[in-house]
Amino acid sequence: MIEVKNLTKKFGPHTAVDNISFVVNDGEILGFLGPNGAGKTTTMNMMTGFISATSGTVRINGYDILDEPVKAKKQLGYLPDVPPLYGDMTVEEYLSFVCDLKGVKKSDRPSMIEEIITTVKIKEVYKRLIKNLSKGYRQRVGLAQALVGFPEVLILDEPTVGLDPRQIIEMRDLIKRLGERHTVILSSHILSEVSAVCDRVMIINKGKIVATDTTEGLSGKADNSAQMITVRGDGDDVCRRLMEWAHIERAVVDSDNADGTCSIKVEGEKGVDIREIISKALAQENIPLLMLRGVSLNLEEAFLKVINGEIEDINVKKEEALDTVSGENTGEEEV
Predict the structure, then answer these.
(1) Percentage of the residues of the chain whose pLDDT score is greater than 90
(2) Distance CA 20, CA 207 (A)
(3) How far apart are the C-alpha atoms of 304 and 308, rounded to whole Å?
(4) pTM for the whole thing?
């Protein structure tokens, strides 16, 4: 289990990570999302002990990353966005070198390396120089080094960056299989990838966690300012009449049906619940309303709405309230 509590990182006057707390449970695949400069990589670097925190704690399976760094780092495998490879080594030499760094017993190495290279599918390049490998194979070698020692926790920062579509699918399938044996934190800008492999999503923006939920739950956090309706009547005429009402900004026919009904997407002003407005408008115009439902968001749309502050996350608010009730001190402290 990973426990991050009141974690803060300042670079001079700039606060890159601002007092964040979260838990990643055993066996979970967590998608860690955010725009460029949001604090994702800084957070992961603190979690792995690569840089120190200004304040706060990170515990990996009970070991504090600063107080017990050797024990904590044995629980971790880290693939940064640029894999830490040495081009003049063969894959075999490099993985042996990583085993030395991680203190793997020589008697355990043959079976461990055989399992790892089979898992990440690099057997065919095992004797080749790393500098002569394709981008996809170099990413796989980087992932192989993270697996050396069979750590319980894997932190993967943009593992599919620069890969072609086929390689992305292969890496995605590999991460899903790894999630059966490891706790995984996955940072990616490819949101379809996150939807496909992650159990839960956490979004960070401007150094603060702004949302945390399952991918389905996050996509379901649509506000009521966009609705899909089915009515009986001429679609264009209904749209024109709806647009005459205050707070309705857009009405577009989605489909005309053979039975004389039509489906219309209606959008209102930001933050305005337009369900009652639609009902009143259609009733006044004597237009039969057959169906009204909120418009579901895909993960990309939900991500943008969260980042733009259009959706407030209930789970984050709940955690903040619990911290307040428990009386925990969340103030920053320079160390």
Answers:
(1) 64
(2) 8
(3) 6
(4) 0.74
